[in-house]
Amino acid sequence: MNVKKTIACKGVEDYKINRKIKKVYLPKPGDLAVFKVLELGKHTSVQGVNGNNTYIFPGDYIMASFGNRYASDQFEGYVPTKYHREYQILGKGGAIGILESMHAKLEDKGTTNLQLVGYVVDKENEVINAKYMHSDPIKFQPNAERSYKMILSLGSSMDSGKTTTAGFLCRGLRAAKKKVVYIKLTGTIYTKDRHFARDCGAHGAYDFSNFGFPSTYLCDKAELLNLHETLLAEAEKHNPDYVIIEIADGLLQKETAMLLGCEEFMNQISDVIFSAADSLGILAGINILGTYGITPFAVSGLFTTSPLLIKEVVPNISQPVLMLEDLGSADIFQLLQKLKIAA
User: Fold for domain 149-338?
Assistant: First the structure.
């Protein structure tokens, strides 16, 4: 059997496929399985273990990971609580589950549907779970002394521009001859964002999938904080001056709200930059952040592509509006110094 592996299964070499337990075993997030492609929908390719597109066709077999997904512009889906005759690709990186809802723009395409062939098991016939498969989590250290500054990149929603903001912030700090590392703490597996940050100039770029998470949706606070600490340990190998941390989706998303409301987490953050797609999103976001006692040092995002939206925002906020050329310039370090958050 020729099995096309998704990036969610990176590092899995010595395995067997257990077909006998597919109707009785209840999967957990991160459990690996082999599926047969039944019909194509939105996903006509998956991200392979080398990070490139791997095109798939009906009749193909793929190895992927069970995972939940929250994506307001794409799919909402969950790890199944019982056996199903069909499963859906929820994310291109190899997150598989049962569809709950989808954005209206995808209704014509629908989902790519799969049949469960069997679970991926080890020599002891135990189902292989990708989470921390090759390492152990590091317990969150709220009082640790950090030699670097952490800046949080937040957005009003999915596709608000927070990844681009984070990437160009890395670019500007690199231009200022600062060592900077990018971390994407939450989201659904697909390594495009960390590759973008790397290409923008980050000395290192990591996300939750480096430690086998197909997604972070529905993780509890302790698990997210330990993941945060584990990712910081990777960042610290670069001896950074700054670590730029992106949290996926919007301020109302469950894990985002949980982290913003966690005093131990936010005490480690030097400052916040906020992105939105429109002017109202900026104003509402600043107001919501204010309820957490958070004041972003600047705003950016998709709204900056419209001069009219910028004109609407500027008179109503005290923060500077940063265009991509501002974020990507070495002058961004001077602004951070001015705001007393320089490394």
Answer: Rossmann fold (3.40.50)
